[in-house]
Amino acid sequence: MQAEQLPQDQLLSKLQSFCQKLDNLTSEKMNLEYALNLRENSLSTIEIEIRDRLITLTQKLTELQQERAQLDYILKAISLYTDDSEKKMLIAHAKLEQEVFKRTQELAEKNTLLQTEIRERQRIENDLRLAATVFQASNEGIFITDAQYKIIKINPSYTNLTGYTEQESLGKTLDILRSKRHHDDFYRKMWQALTIVGYWSGEIWHQRKNSEDFPSWLSMNAVKNDQNDVIYYIGIFTDNTYQKLSEERAYYLANFDALTDLSNRILFQDRLQQVLKWAQRDQHWVALLLIDLDHFKAINEAFGHTSGDQLVRMTAKRLVSCLHDEKDAIARLGGDEFVILLSDLQPNQQALQVISDLADKILTNLQQLFILDGHEEQEIFITASIGITIFPQDGQTVAALLKNADSALYEAKELGRNNYQFFTNTMNVVAHRRLTLQNCLRRALERDELLLYYQPQIDVYTQEVVGAEVLLRWDHPKYGMIAPSEFIPIAEDSGLIIPISEWILAKVCEQRQAFQQQGLKSIRIAVNLSARQFHYDGLIPNIISTLKKYDLSADWLELEITETIAMSGADKTINMLKALKNLGILLAIDDFGTGYSSLNYLKYFTVDTLKIDSSFIKDITTTNGAALVVAIINMAHSLQMTIVAEGVETEEQLIFLHEHRCDIVQGYFFYRPLLPNVLANLL
After folding, report:
1. Coil, helix or strand at residue 643
2. What beta strand segments (E) does 240-358 contain?
3. In sequence order, what E strands does 512-612 have?
4. What's 7's DSSP letter?
5. What is the pLDDT of residues 418-432, one digit of tens each?
């Protein structure tokens, strides 16, 4: 239809229709805004609805623009008929165009806001989805309660850790996890902290569904609304069982002896420190009994460290069995050294009797037979030495008491072992001298302070020199000649006996070579082996290399071991003696009769000589003493061994030994220990 043919009433109808469409568009915009404010719908549903309405709105805007173009055409047509109509239509058109532009701008702004809102809601939805994933997948147990501590949500790890399912947990209070290890006061303080601070964390014991307690680390937070009222509590906890066990293990290793389960030195000293404070306050006595096994090193080396450890464990059990008061304590200080603490003693004579009775009980208990398990059962007898100190008279500090107990222990060993000694002030002097000698002994070799003497051995029938025993002496530049009984134990304990023994063998070989070069009579020379040296892995290699160095055979060299060494780990001893015998070396058992003899083993020893201890020779004039000596001589001869009697000092002793067919004697009746050049004159 042409514009000039269109009636005016129809044009007005078109305008009304256009305005109606604008009103509808306005209403559509309001509905869209309303949709944006609907928070109860899910984010995904709102997003889809908004997108659909945006598409519809875009289409309607396009239609409106088309209507506007048509209206422009109509308005131009109207202007052909009348000026008034044109004027009115132009005014209406201008207003309409202004309204459309305004509405278009508003719609564009709303569209921008809608896009921003969509992106924000997408982000929130992603965060919520991520939080839900973490909640479900976390290895930590998570629970959410209401303000009354009733559980309203749990995660799978909560069920894994506690055993309670969601059905069993929801609606229940946290009391279902409550452990009896905590008192009501513990939980009261925890809820109080949550109420006041809004946060609590710490170690707590929980109880599983199967009633098993387990340690955990719990963190709880209060969630509040805008009015600052608590609406939720969120708890996160982990199972700390492994960490707890690790901490307990670390504490155990730091404070207890892993071999015996007794307190170690650190824990014992801490306890002693506390006991001394109480004793000083209450004016009580405290006693320390320092216990050390006699000749343990020889046993350990003979049987091996595994058997040595077993012996230490068995010793610890016997010591514990000797205690009768819960206040008494025992610890292993290291090696074969133990200490017993007696506290709360009244300062009187009765306390001294209690201490002495316990020491006697320990010595008696430890003397009982030990049977060690191994490839085969091993029977061992041991003894112990004990040093005793008393607070406050023997020292008022932990260090002083232990130091003085060690001095008393050393005194007990000096007095023959298998006894106990109370500390006296004079022992400090002895201990100081011992430490001084130990330091000096370390440099004695390099300073050429050690000397070798030779004790001649005499054939009973011909009274000729047939051998000599090497004796070590120490000529100290300050203290003069120091007795072997004083410095040999120091050398044993400090480990210096090995280099000293190697020096002795080298000197003896050097002297033997000199005797040969002088064309002197060939005699056998006896060298003593200590327990540590006998079990030293380098013994045989050292002997071979030393003999080779001086171009000597081995048939003149006699090695002496004590009966105690021979009987400690007899099987191993037999193997070592066979190895030495294969080198062509002569072997002797020294001090026979003073140790724990086993005649059953003795017949297997490939030894050449049996030496009767001087203590038996001294009693040879008594009936029992004479009978023992005769028995030893007869037994040795039956085993094809040579008999040497030590400590012969009188003619009466010599006559007796001659009558009972003793082979060789040595002692002051003939010669005192001689320097090498004096011995050479005899040869």
Report:
1. strand
2. 285-293, 329-334, 337-345
3. 524-528, 557-562, 586-592, 609-612
4. -
5. 898 888 877 667 667
Name every residue whose Cβ is closer than 8 Å to that of residue 557 and which is 6 or more positions away in sequence. 508, 512, 524, 525, 527, 543, 547, 585, 586
State the Cα–Cα distance between residues 68 and 79, nearest whole angstrom: 17
3-state helix, strand, coil in the chain (%, to 5): 55, 20, 25
CB atoms within 10 A of CB 336: 21
In which element (H, E) is residue 472 found? strand 465-476
At 65, the pLDDT band (50, 70, 90 cuts) reads: low
CA 383 to chain centre: 30
Q: Which residues contact 56 (CB under 8 A, 6 or more apart)?
A: 28
Q: Measured in whole angstroms, how far is the alpha carbon of residue 664 from the centre of its chain?
A: 57
Both structure tokens of 332: 């292993």
Q: How far apart are CA 673 and CA 137, in angstroms?
A: 88
Distance from C-alpha of 271 to C-alpha of 250, rounded to nearest angstrom = 19
State the DSSP H helix or E strand holding residue 350, giving kind and residue range, or none if neither. Answer: helix 349-366
Residue 361's identity, in one-letter code, is: K
Q: Between the CA of residue 658 and those of 477, 482, 644, what are the distances in Å?
A: 43, 35, 12
Q: Beta strands 370-372 and 378-380: pairing type?
A: antiparallel
Share of the chain above pLDDT 90, in %: 18
Q: Which position has the higher pLDDT, 456 or 51? A: 456
Q: Please count the other Cβ atoms lying within 10 Å of the Cβ belonging to residue 66.
A: 10
Dump strand ranges (E) for 501-618: 524-528, 557-562, 586-592, 609-612
Integer CA distances (angstroms), 266 to 271, 293, 341, in order: 9, 21, 14
CA distances from 670 to 544, 629, 676 (A): 34, 20, 16
Question: Could you give the maximum distance between any two Cα atoms of the chain, in Å?
Answer: 176
> Could you check whether the bond before residue 392 is cis, i.e. omega within 30 degrees of 0?
yes
| pLDDT single digits (tens) 630-653 | 888 888 888 888 999 998 998 899
What's the CA gap between 2 and 191, in Å, rounded? 87
Strands (E), 370-422: 370-372, 378-380, 384-391, 420-422
In the chain, count of helices (H) and strands (E)?
A: 24, 21
pLDDT tens-digit profile of 384-431?
A: 999 999 999 888 899 999 999 998 898 888 778 889 888 887 766 766
Q: How many CA atoms lie within 13 A of 4 on its CB side?
A: 2
Handedness of CA 389, 391, 395, 397 (dihedral sign): positive
